[in-house]
Amino acid sequence: MPEIHLTRLAEFEDLNRQIVACWACPRLVEWRERIGIEKRKSFQEDTYWAKAVPNFGDPDAVRLIVGLAPAAHGANRTGRMFTGDRSGDWLYRALHKAGVANQPTSTRLDDGLLLDGVLITAVCHCAPPDNKPTPDEIKTCSPFLQTLLESRSWHSILCLGNLAWDRTHRALGVKSPKFGHSTVSEVESLKGTIRLVGSYHPSQQNTFTGRLTEEMLDEAIQKFLSS
After folding, report:
1. How confident is residue 190, by pLDDT bands cut at 50, 70 and 90?
2. Which end of the chain is more exposed for a tag (fewer CB within 10 A), N or C?
3. Which letter does DSSP use for residue 30 in this model?
4. pLDDT tens digit sequence for 54-71
5. Is 54 within the bounds of a domain?
């Protein structure tokens, strides 16, 4: 295990504390907490996280994955990005195959999952109704993504879905090109060139219909890791 840069670790932990403590969007706060009480039948015995979900991964990472928002009974339940739902099953299986996750599954906070050189964040850190945060909610949450992007020199960013693609480009101060699966965009920043790779989100809608296959996700991740 490489030595972690202590300043970067402190910044990472401080940003996560700010995220978890956020109550800025009344609709999202009400929804995330209500879901934690009503629960899905199969998770009746679980204690839901029901707060904003922090960033997850290697604090020293130079590669970033940007998702949309926590799933109501996934990350909003477990408290970790892409954990406890089918989207996470797809993502972590692919990251394990690529050699940057120590295991292919992500079921709960204490399952031992570690990422090497990769960090995961989201456009919106609270679970939204119907998986659709409003433009105002996205704007309110955007300083967290902005702070993370400015925290270091990123080599590459994998954007899961069109919204993540658009908002990440905006946060980097450039207009986003047309989104497509495995589309690559290179952005010049004050800290160097950042490669952005687009991928269809590993949502059930995309994976069940075949719009996104395992081979397609593997391809996008290889482009993401190759810079």
Report:
1. confident
2. N
3. H
4. 999 999 999 999 999 999
5. yes
